[in-house]
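Sequence only, no structure available. Ideas?
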Amino acid sequence: MDLNIDLNSDLGESLGVWRMGDDAAMLDIVSSANVACGFHAGDPAGILRTLRQAKERGVAIGAHVAYRDLVGFGRRNMDVDSADLRADVIYQIGALKGLAAAAGTGVRYVKPHGALYNTIAHDERQARDVIAAIREIDAGLVLVALAGSPLLGWAEAAGLRVVAEAFADRAYTPQGTLVSRREPGAVLHDAADVAERMLRLANEGTVTAIDGSVVRIRADSVCVHGDSPGAVEMARRVRERLVQAGVTIRPFTFDLAEAATA
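Reply:
I predicted one. Tokens follow.
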């Protein structure tokens, strides 16, 4: 059986003279790029540069929308009013769409960032606000969400296409949720071990949880973070191990488009 999976990374997050990650190197590895929209990170010139680099490499583009939280890098929980949250998401997607058009490419999906991502995975009110915002600006956009989360069902019921996501360098609880970054062992650093974990995920749909138990995770896209130490090397090891085992790396948007015309 032919196996394929998408590798995505959070990019476009540098701000002025402050540099975050190595977008050019990551874009040679991943098949999809979650590009910051200016609310948690990123400036227009840097975002545009990343979009142009992604287009050159045939990498799919997604809007990495977030809470309005530059100081906290979008990782602080916020109780945002529904009208504000909807408008903020629309604003971010619209801005990225404009920059993408200037770069000669387009936005294909939305992947929320940080605290917004984690909140809407289970908070129905904020989840429905984000879903509504996506539908208002472009109902054809795909929503990337945490594998196993209620958000996937809420979005599908509202008419959005969804893609379930797993994380290469994050530990999982026995319940299949991500271990909080505040807990020891939440972020994994052994590139070889992470690569083997992702091969097992692709082949069997399982990962080993932080307590040693086996958890089933159904995911069509894997996030390899670009902002951690050794991120590029880890992403490269993951890609190499998957390809070596016969797994094809390609954007999930390719598979969705193929299914739609079948």
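The CA atoms of residues 37 and 96 lie 6 Å apart.
Hope that gets you unstuck.
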